[in-house]
Amino acid sequence: MPSAEAVLERPESYVRVTCRMCQSRELKCFLDLGDTALANSFLKPGQSAAGERKFKLDLCFCSVCGQVQLGTVVAPEIMFRDYIYVSSTSDTIPKHFAECAREAVERFMPSRQGLVAEVASNDGCLLKGFQACGVNVVGIEPAVNIAKMANDAGVPTVNEFFTEAVGARVREQYGPASLICGNNVFAHVDDLDEFVKGFLALLAEDGVVILESPHLAEMVKKLEFDTAYHEHVSYLSLRAMDRLFGRFDMSVFDVRKTGVHGGSVRYFIRRGRAEKSEAAKALLAEEGSLGLHRFGTYERFAADVQALRRDLMGLLRRLKAEGKRLAGYGAPAKGNTLLQYCGIGGDLLDYLVDKSSLKQGTRAPGTHLDVFSPEKLMQDRPDYVLILAWNFADEIMRQQSEYRATGGRFILPVPSPRIV
Ligand code: ZN
């Protein structure tokens, strides 16, 4: 764990001039989402908004490897030491993780011998799935509060940021890892070289790294600009992953598309040169045909995002002028990007509701909207609910069938605002 002095020595944020995947200096910005508060820095009860820090949120493109990434990087110690996102909060994610674990064990550890390590293991949700398959596990999680939850729940968890030194130390204590998993973490890491060196330090010779992250294609196709927030520094594609792992003599040998977080890809990586599977070849071809490595694609994306903001604000203002009452469902990181970029605050939404008890009773960063439990919707019955956690829209609308039955309506903001 870095000492307090080490934390203070680092600047709070800096402007990135080299691509973290291929190290070129060919970064061009295409979308400025403004100065926004950190999307997971909720204001606790009684906490003043006066000290709230805002950082530039701008999206850039690397013309060499096609990677999309943030131009301004905020120090991880500011963002991840007291993290509020807990995997188990959603109904969908634990089921998805249990399935992932079962599949991975059957494919790569049929003898059930060996160790599974997970970086950014959160509350141990995925590792519990592996424990259920009878394999040894260890988590590595930087958030103090969440690592404690995992340890308390019986999932051995090291409270650290993952680095080469930490990888080596975990190997010493637990042995080499047959599998290293990382779900929704790789896109959050600024210094990926250090992270990959950590994999090499911990991974068994014939071990496999499995990383799952939202795919750049989904963001571009579905105009999911709100998946941009300071924690999320990279928007990954196979083409850029190949560049990164190739520099460390590792290969992405297979991929699998998965449904969580609005379209993710699971990447399978091992040491040395390996043949690409048919699925990996197909994904590379798809990335090419979508124009993911052409700057023009992102110029169009930026123009469409500006149009979305205009349309959404038009819709919300019209409903408000008709005397309707509006609230927001979900206070996810992406919701805070969307609200702050569009300029939606207390003048349009009365409050937000969220299932996470860690968020209830807080105020959302930037907009300072109060966050309540979802039960509030049935007590208060606003006319319209803007779904900010749109990746769980089906789950939310199913759970809120009573609210809908009594006349409540939902608004989905992306890819174009519409009432459902
Ligand atoms: Zn690059």
Gist?
The protein is 35% helix and 23% strand. It is an alpha/beta fold.
What descriptive keywords fit this protein?
seven-stranded mixed sheet, alpha/beta, disordered N terminus, single chain, globular, 19 strands, 15 helices, 420 residues, 35% helix, six-stranded mixed sheet, binds zinc ion
Give a verbal description of the structure.
The protein is 35% helix and 23% strand. It is an alpha/beta fold and 420 residues long. Helix 5 links the parallel strand 7 (136-140) and strand 8. The protein is globular and about 65 Å long. 46% of the residues are buried. Mean pLDDT is 91; it is low at 1-8. Zinc ion (ZN) is lined by residues 19, 21-22, 24, 62, 64-65, 67.
Cα end-to-end separation = 47 Å
Rounded mean pLDDT is 91
State the strand order across the main sheet: 8-7-6-9-10-13-12
Give the C-alpha Rg. Answer: 21 Å
The portion of residues forming beta strands comes to 15-25%
- Give the overall silhouette: globular
| Helix/sheet category | alpha/beta
Instruction: Provide the low-confidence segments as ranges.
Output: 1-8
DSSP strand count? 19
What hetero molecules are bound to the protein chains? zinc ion
Provide the fold topology.
Elements: H1 4-9, E1 13-15, E2 27-37, E3 54-62, E4 68-70, E5 72-74, H2 76-80, H3 92-108, E6 115-119, H4 125-132, E7 136-140, H5 144-152, E8 157-158, H6 164-174, E9 177-183, H7 192-202, E10 203-214, H8 216-221, E11 234-235, H9 238-246, E12 250-258, E13 264-271, H10 278-289, H11 295-321, E14 326-329, H12 333-342, E15 352-353, E16 371-372, H13 375-380, E17 384-387, H14 393-399, H15 401-405, E18 409-412, E19 418-419
Parallel strand pairs: 6-7, 6-9, 7-8, 9-10, 14-15, 14-17, 15-16, 17-18
Antiparallel strand pairs: 1-5, 2-3, 3-4, 4-11, 10-13, 12-13, 18-19
This protein binds zinc ion.
